[in-house]
Design goal:
Elements lengths: L5 H4 L3 H16 L5 H34 L15
Length: 82
């Protein structure tokens, strides 16, 4: 099996969240054999860490933008600045 590049293996946040939800639903059903349940848990744990990293990166980007007041598109009352 060919190795995936980093770009191919990284999913969007939404895709990762959907996959995590599917993993959780499968595990909650209680129908998975032990080995599959353990593998699903491992995949879910890895995915949760990846999603957390994506959230952290997004939060840092927003915080950086908020520090540069000239880039904030809204006034104090939520109105667009001229």
């Amino acid at each position: 099996m060919p190795r995936q590049t980093k770009a191919e293996s990284q999913k969007s946040f939404e895709e990762g969240l959907l996959e995590l939800e599917q993993i959780l639903m499968g595990m909650e059903g209680g129908d998975l054999p032990l080995e599959e349940a353990v593998a699903a848990y491992e995949r879910g744990a890895k995915l949760a860490l990846e999603l957390e990293a994506q959230l952290k990166a997004g939060r840092q980007r927003v915080e950086k933008l908020m520090k540069d007041q000239s880039r904030v598109p809204f006034g104090e009352e939520g109105e667009t600045e001229p």
